[in-house]
Amino acid sequence: MTVAATHNRRILVIDDNESIHEDFCRILQSSGTVSSEIDKVEAELFGNTEAPGPPRDSFELDFALQGQNGYERVLQAVNAGRPYALAFVDVRMPPGWDGIETIERLWDIDPDLQIAVCTAYADYSWDEIIARLGRTDKLLLLKKPFDKAEVWQLACSLTEKWRLARQADQKLGELGKAIENRTAELEVEVFERRRIEEALRESEERYRNVYETAPLAFVLWDRECRLIGWNDRAPPSPEVAERWPPVMWLMRAPCAVVGGGGARTSPLCWAAANRPAIRPDAALST
Fold first, then answer.
1. For residue 58, what are the CA distances in angstroms to 54, 110, 172?
2. Domain shared by 13 and 73, yes or no
3. d(Cα 146, Cα 130) in Å, to the nearest integer?
4. pLDDT grade for 261, boundaries at 50, 70 and 90
5. How far apart are CA 188 and CA 182, in angstroms?
6. Strand order in the sheet with 227-230
7. Region at 134 (left for phi over 0; alpha for psi -120 to 50; beta for the rest)
8. pTM
9. What would the pLDDT profile of 165-218 be if each residue is shown by its tens digit?
């Protein structure tokens, strides 16, 4: 099963303050105390008076003190096929890359990564951040100092958003593959149909050449014994041919009479098309 088909709860925290790392550990990793505090906040917000549920699932956390270190971790995760779903990135991280440059570089190697920008300063206005990073639904702002419930909600919603986005990409990929396969099948069917049509045209052309150039007189009847055609060796007009029933061809020149039942040739032959009263074999044996 691919990562996209499961709940990816891998989160990277990039911040130059190790105490911030500890805060994220206390909030996002399993702890009965933290869960109780969050449940209490939810009860105050939504008026939930029910008993608290079971302990919350924890997230898998990794940490980096600088943007460069965070970049290396994300690159390793992508290459290993275990990408992060979310990164919390501090804006001010001297002496290396600041948070905005770090995010730019992270999206170069993992454009699906959800990011929460963490800041307590006015280093960049929101307009400046948008100008640098573009308008995207993969970026949210988290102000310091953090509220525990807010951090938990961001982690839950953004990791789930990552999962749904990847799931949608997979579905689109499967749909595209199905369309590609069906298109290939249709191309084969079209090619085969053209090949059959060409074979039929060649067969009709060969028949037409035989019909028009044969030294025999060819006369064609349909299944109702109606005269439908003849070649140059046959009678000169429909009126004449209609007055000569098939039995009279026994006394004429060598001929081939073609009808619904096929064609028979002989120095003296005829074949009435599905005419039950007269059998072609009997005529040939005379």
1. 12, 23, 31
2. yes
3. 22
4. very low
5. 10
6. 227-230, 217-221, 255-259, 262-266
7. left
8. 0.58
9. 989 988 988 999 999 999 999 999 999 999 999 999 888 888 778 777 777 777
Residue 142 C-beta-side C-alpha neighbours within 13 Å: 26
**Shared domain check, 125 and 28:** yes
Residue 201 lies in a domain: no
Please measure the distance between the N-terminal and C-terminal CA atoms of the chain and give it in whole angstroms: 80
For residue 133, give the amino acid letter: L
Q: Which amino acid is at 75?
A: L
Q: Which residues contact 117 (CB under 8 A, 6 or more apart)?
A: 89, 91, 99, 103, 129, 139, 140, 141, 142
pLDDT for 234 beyond 80: no
Q: Do 151 and 278 belong to one domain?
A: no
Contact 257, 219 (CB under 8 A): yes
Which single residue is written with the structure tokens 């002496």?
A: 95
On whether the CB atoms of residues 40 and 48 are closer than 8 A, the answer is no
Whether residue 145 has a cis bond before it, omega within 30° of 0: yes
Range of the domain at 228: 214-284
Measured CA to CA, the distance from residue 147 to residue 58 in angstroms comes to 17
Give the span between the Cα atoms of 87 and 103, in whole angstroms.
9
Query: Looking only at Cα atoms, what is the longest distance across the chain?
Result: 117
